[in-house]
Amino acid sequence: xxxxxxxxxxxxxxxxxxxxxxxxxxxxxxxxxxxxxxxxxxxxxxxxxxxxxxxxxxxxxxxxxxxxxxxxxxxxxxxxxxxxxxxxxxxxxxxxxxxxxxxxxxxxxxxxxxxxxxxxxxxxxxxxxxxxxxxxxxxxxxxxxxxxxxxxxxxxxxxxxxxxxxxxxxxxxxxxxxxxxxxxxxxxxxxxxxxxxxxxxxxxxxxxxxxxxxxxxxxxxxxxxxxxxxxxxxxxxxxxxxxxxxxxxxxxxxxxxxxxxxxxxxxxxxxxxxxxxxxxxxxxxxxxxxxxxxxxxxxxxxxxxxxxxxxxxxxxxxx
Length: 319
Description:
Elements: H1 5-26, H2 53-74, H3 77-86, E1 93-97, E2 103-108, E3 116-121, H4 131-145, E4 149-155, H5 171-191, E5 196-202, H6 205-212, E6 220-224, E7 242-246, E8 261-263, E9 266-268, E10 282-283, H7 300-310
Parallel strand pairs: 3-4, 3-5, 5-6, 6-7, 7-10
Antiparallel strand pairs: 1-2, 2-4, 8-9
Helix pairs in contact: 2-3, 4-7, 5-6
């Protein structure tokens, strides 16, 4: 008996996902065995409040400077340069941890007085060494928001490698979600209750946000270039926030099978495509964006993200 189209497509999706998993296992990853880079433990700081921001920023810049010296002594000039840049007096970090692949939360704008705040959650392969591309997106959004808004680049977890088994499972997201929830709770101690907070999540970061979403005190959750959130629908995220989704026409993630299945003793994949009608998100236009282009200056995607963060939702161009 011949297979129906739906059954054939289902088998094909599973076969493609299996091939992806095998490739992630057997393809060598450059630098996977790099030695641990020494760095100081993060500063122990008082509870986060608006009045303490100056002290927090200064302490984290000092930690970044110490980390740069230690990385230089260790012979890792790339990490030393990244840490040194973060120690600049012009930079403002709520957290900094130079150990391992690194963690940092950078602030753009006047966080204490902003009434619109965007928290960006990155996807795979984001480390202190590659942080520049993530930072560029945060800066581009802040430039569009103006004085009303502040943007936080939240590199608060160890992101998976794009070519790895970790990028296909929820393990890193499950570790990250409690950290994100805790951070957003502390953020309220700075911005206060009236401020509108939007959570903008990219790629594997959408899996993190999906795990953290339930009951979050945010106005909007936006998923960009998502492989799936791990939820079957926007309603299944159990959030009072508006849920938005977008994917650019040049984003390769469109070709990733949006499914979940048991494979090699674990669950791989993240389920339904968030831009599909069945998911139920508010889908908006991202133009011709590729996977790394959602915050590109002048793009339709960035224009719509700005409207969402500012609350001008009626002006968002829907897909």
